[in-house]
Specification:
- The chain has about 230 residues and is α+β, with helices and mostly antiparallel strands.
- It has a domain of about 160 residues: 3-Layer(bab) Sandwich (minor pseudopilin epsh fold), CATH 3.55.40.
- It has three helices and ten strands, in the order H-H-E-E-E-E-H-E-E-E-E-E-E.
- The strands form two sheets. Strands 3-2-1-5-6 form a five-stranded antiparallel beta sheet, with helices on one face. A five-stranded antiparallel beta sheet has the order 4-7-8-9-10.
- A hairpin with a 5-residue loop joins strand 8 and strand 9.
- The longest helix has about 50 residues.
- It is elongated, with a radius of gyration of 35 Å.
- The protein starts with 9 loop residues before the first helix and ends with a strand.
- About 20% of the residues are buried.
Length: about 230
């Protein structure tokens, strides 16, 4: 393959050589420069204005998404301590009790034994909810926003009977079945219930933890018109 030597434009080479020589004679260093290009102030201000508008639109949605994620996380943790209490009752072959209390304006859920007079939280399995989290009574019957949960909504079927919602604690017997709390862990449960629902709020948001008569634990969230998991 033939190779060719490409000669530079003679006039251009002569001009550059002359400039180089003149610069050396004048005592100035030779600098090869290129014309710089950039954004004008108006262009920068337009870009910043667009970014601020996009940020203002996205910020509320981001804040809401983060709040809902945290809300669902707290309910998942709460459901976990219910499950822990049930598992502990089966493992220990003895009734276990799950209690709710408020400490420094925070809802605390902890596992105890029925009939215990020790109100201390030390050494007990517990979970602390964030300060905006509140345990509340069930919505009144006939309420529509939110509507109270029913056995049919929670566990299937057509029953409109509500689960037990008036308790401040829940017990699981040695078979993991929710029951009326006895006077001591060694005592049998005095009765089996039709399941439980415990309600919680954060601002205008509602959620609940349900325990079926068979001991199945699920969380429920109110989505403005209906409950869903």
């Amino acid at each position: 393959m033939e190779s060719r030597l490409i000669q530079p434009d003679q006039a251009k080479l002569t001009r550059l050589t002359s400039q180089h020589a003149n610069s050396k004679r004048a005592g100035h260093p030779v600098r090869w420069t290129a014309k710089a290009h950039g954004f004008s102030l108006v262009e920068l201000m337009v870009v910043i204005a667009i970014a601020l508008v996009v940020f203002a639109i996205a910020l509320p949605k981001m804040t809401t998404s983060l709040t809902l994620t945290k809300w669902r996380g707290e309910m998942s943790d709460l459901s976990g301590v219910f499950q822990k209490c049930r598992s502990q009752a089966i493992k220990n072959n003895a009734t276990q009790q799950l209690d709710f209390t408020t400490n420094n304006a925070q809802v605390v859920t902890y596992i105890d034994v029925p009939g215990s007079t020790d109100s201390s939280l030390a050494g007990k399995t517990q979970i602390w909810m964030f300060s905006q989290f509140s345990k509340v009574d069930a919505p009144p019957l006939g309420n529509t926003n939110p509507a109270p949960l029913t056995q049919g909504t929670m566990w299937g079927g057509s029953s409109t009977n509500p689960p037990v919602t008036t308790e401040q604690h829940i017990c699981f017997n040695s078979r993991g079945i929710p029951c009326t709390c006895p006077g001591a862990a060694t005592f049998p449960c005095p009765g089996i219930t039709n399941g439980y629902a415990f309600y919680f709020t954060q601002g205008e948001q509602w959620a609940a933890v349900g325990v079926s008569p068979a001991g199945r634990i699920k969380t429920y969230f109110w989505y403005g018109s209906a409950w869903a998991n």
